[in-house]
Amino acid sequence: MSTDIKPSQITLSDEGKICFQPNETNPLPGDAIAQLVKGESIYAPQFEMMAGATLSQDVVSAALEAHLQANLTVFYKLTASSELPQPVQDICAAVYESFGMAAREDLQDTIAQLDTDMRTIVRNKGIRLGPLYLFCPEMNKPAALRLRALLWGVYNGMDLPVTRMPDGMVSKKVDSAEAPIAPEQAALYKALCYPVYGGRAIRIDMLDRVVNAIYDSADKGKFQAQHAMAEWMGCPIAELYAILEALGHKKVHDPADEAAEDTAPKEETAEEKTEAPVSEKQAGDAQDAAKPNTDNIKPELATFALKRGKAYQKSGSGKAQKPHAKKDKPAFKKGKKPHKGKKPRDQGPRVISAGPDKPSQANSPFAVLGQLKK
């Protein structure tokens, strides 16, 4: 048997079996020849050969290492050089040791030391500095996620195949009071860049999008939830609120609560009880005529107070207001220009209307009375 094995001839099943396909042109995985077991690190699993394997242990070991290198290239690049600036090395090490996603709050001081050149190096290493986490977008593609899920499960002694997010899914309800999520399962979702907030495992890039929208729209320490946020994450409004609160924001006003109070039944007054009876059809017609068409109008969503922190302090001063017009210049209506140094146009003599003619003094009763006295 030739020892020239290509990485494409070795595949790993979700059950942790190493499969070998002798025919390079055959897309099928081939026969299982070994079983993965826990190794010294999550990146270096060991294996146990199966009876009747057609390859030697050394060949399988080399093929497995090549397979991992080919599918986890970005991770291996993180530790490829020791000549990088120290802050860059610290960030690369943190992402590598966390298996692809490190909390930003744990690295805030290190991130503050990055200059423009260092940030470029971090970006070229494949790391994105998100508002909540640092992660490698390239390693969140379906093939890489499947391999990462397998390696995590093998290293942490989980039952195989592990439960992971379906390929391409943005978020999924994974935790509730009726079916609480196990801590090891939540840790798996987080390691695969699907942290759990408000009972949902959310893909990190979409969570970043929501967080950025929050701080972009925040004003004076508050922001209003948007329907787009729920659409991005594929969840109902109630679960969006749960996610926002799990992120540390506090709901301070919900128009839905006021609407519920307005629609609550009220006690009838004496006048209402003596009104003439109205048929159901008449009442229905009147309601339909008075009811506006709100089919395409989305309800106003709740307002939240921002989680206090650096981002809150940045946006807490409020947005800049437009400058007022200067007082030493007269204000003119838009579209009309004032006359500059020109004489006013000759519009002719001004005519003042005096209204209807007044009655003559000679015909007044007082004048007649005066003549009789003479």
Textual characterization of the structure:
The protein is α+β, with helices and mostly antiparallel strands and 374 residues long. Among the domains are: 7-71, no CATH class; 76-140, no CATH class; 203-261 and 300-316. Helix content is 37%, strand content 13%. It contains 15 helices and 13 strands. The strands form 4 sheets. The protein has a 4-stranded antiparallel sheet. A 3-stranded antiparallel sheet has the order 5-7-6, with helices on one face. Helix 3 runs parallel beside helix 5. The protein is globular, with a radius of gyration of 38 Å. The model is unreliable at 311-335 and 348-356 (pLDDT under 50).
Question: What is the count of β-strands?
Answer: 13
End-to-end gap: 154 Å
Please tell me how large the radius of gyration is.
Answer: 38 Å
Low-pLDDT residue intervals, each spanning 5 or more residues: 311-335, 348-356
Strand order of the main beta sheet, please? Answer: 1-2-3-4
Give helix % range: 25-40%
Structural class: alpha+beta
Q: What global shape is seen?
A: globular
Count up the helices.
15
Q: In what range is the share of β-strand residues? A: 5-15%
Mean pLDDT rating: 82
Largest sheet: 4 strands, antiparallel
Q: What sequence of helices (H) and strands (E) makes up the elements?
A: EEEEHHHEHHEEHEHEEHEHHEHHHEHH
